[in-house]
C-alpha cells in the first residue's frame, strides 16, 4: 500500500485531463524515482507558475505578464479578433501558425444544463472590444457542439449591430479522413460547406 503522501500525489495527478488512476500512478512513480532530475524541478516550476501566471486582462490568455505576449505584440493584425472558448483553443490556433490577429477567450460556452449564461462568459467584454477597437472581422472559432453552436449564434446576434464581418471556421472532412469513418454530422457539414475544386 503506498504511503499517504504518494497516494495524495496520485489522487491529484489523476485529476489532470488525460490522466486516470493508472496513468497517475505511473507518473507518480516516475517522479519519485527521478526525484532530483524530475520531481524537484517540476515542483519548483509549478510553484513559480502558480505565483507568476495569470489571465490577460485584455483577451483572457494565460501568461506571466499583463497584457499577454499576443496582446502586446505590435506585429499582430488588429482588425481581426478570433473568439475561442478556452485558452487551450487559443494555443492550438497559435501552434498552427495560420492566424496572426488578436483573440478573445470567452471562458466556456453557453449551457443551460450547467447554469452558464452570458453573464458567466466574457461576451460583454468581446462586444466592447469589437466596438471600441479597429476590429473589422470577428472569427467565431467555437466548437461544433450544440453548446458551441448556440454560443456562436448568440455572439453573432450581439455583434451584428456593430457592422463587423462575422465568420465561422469551416467544418467538415479532416485532412486524411476517410468517408467511411466519419459521423453523419461531419459528413453533412462537409457537404453543406463544399466549394469549387
Please summarize what this structure is.
With about 200 residues, this protein is an alpha/beta fold. The chain is about 45% helix and about 10% strand. The model has no long low-confidence stretch (mean pLDDT about 90).
Q: What does this 3D model show about the protein?
A:
The protein has helices at 4-14, 21-33, 35-52, 69-72, 87-96, 123-132, 146-159, 184-192, and strands spanning 54-55, 62-63, 80-84, 102-105, 137-140, 165-168. Strands 4-3-5-6 form a four-stranded parallel beta sheet. It is α/β, with parallel strands linked by helices. The protein is built from eight helices and six strands, in the order H-H-H-E-E-H-E-H-E-H-E-H-E-H.
Largest sheet, spatial ordering of strands: 4-3-5-6
**Level of helix content?**
40-55%
What's the average pLDDT? 92
Q: Please give the largest β-sheet.
A: 4 strands, parallel
Strand and helix order = HHHEEHEHEHEHEH
Distance between the termini: 62 Å
The fraction of residues assigned to DSSP E strands is: 5-15%
Low-confidence stretches: none
Shape: globular
Secondary structure blueprint with pairings:
Layout: H1 4-14, H2 21-33, H3 35-52, E1 54-55, E2 62-63, H4 69-72, E3 80-84, H5 87-96, E4 102-105, H6 123-132, E5 137-140, H7 146-159, E6 165-168, H8 184-192
Parallel strand pairs: 3-4, 3-5, 5-6
Antiparallel strand pairs: 1-2
Helix pairs in contact: 1-2
Output the keywords.
197 residues, alpha/beta, four-stranded parallel sheet, 8 helices
Amino acid at each position: 500500500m503506498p504511503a499517504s503522501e504518494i497516494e495524495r500525489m496520485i489522487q491529484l495527478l489523476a485529476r489532470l485531463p488525460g490522466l486516470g488512476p493508472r496513468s497517475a500512478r505511473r507518473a507518480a512513480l516516475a517522479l519519485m524515482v527521478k526525484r532530483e532530475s524530475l520531481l524537484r524541478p517540476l515542483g519548483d516550476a509549478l510553484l513559480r507558475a502558480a505565483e507568476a501566471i495569470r489571465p490577460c486582462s485584455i483577451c483572457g490568455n494565460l501568461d506571466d505578464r499583463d497584457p499577454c505576449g499576443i496582446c502586446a505584440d505590435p506585429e499582430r493584425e488588429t482588425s481581426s479578433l478570433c473568439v475561442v472558448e478556452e485558452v487551450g483553443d487559443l494555443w492550438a490556433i497559435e501552434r498552427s501558425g495560420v492566424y496572426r490577429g488578436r483573440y478573445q477567450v470567452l471562458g466556456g460556452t453557453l449551457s443551460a444544463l450547467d447554469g452558464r449564461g452570458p453573464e458567466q462568459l466574457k461576451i460583454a467584454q468581446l462586444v466592447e472590444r469589437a466596438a471600441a477597437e479597429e476590429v473589422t472581422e470577428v472569427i467565431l472559432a467555437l466548437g461544433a457542439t450544440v453548446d458551441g453552436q448556440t454560443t456562436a449564434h448568440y455572439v453573432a446576434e450581439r455583434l451584428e449591430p456593430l457592422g463587423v464581418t462575422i465568420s465561422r471556421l469551416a467544418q467538415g472532412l479532416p485532412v486524411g479522413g476517410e468517408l467511411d469513418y466519419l459521423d453523419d454530422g461531419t459528413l453533412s457539414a462537409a457537404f453543406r460547406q463544399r466549394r469549387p475544386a
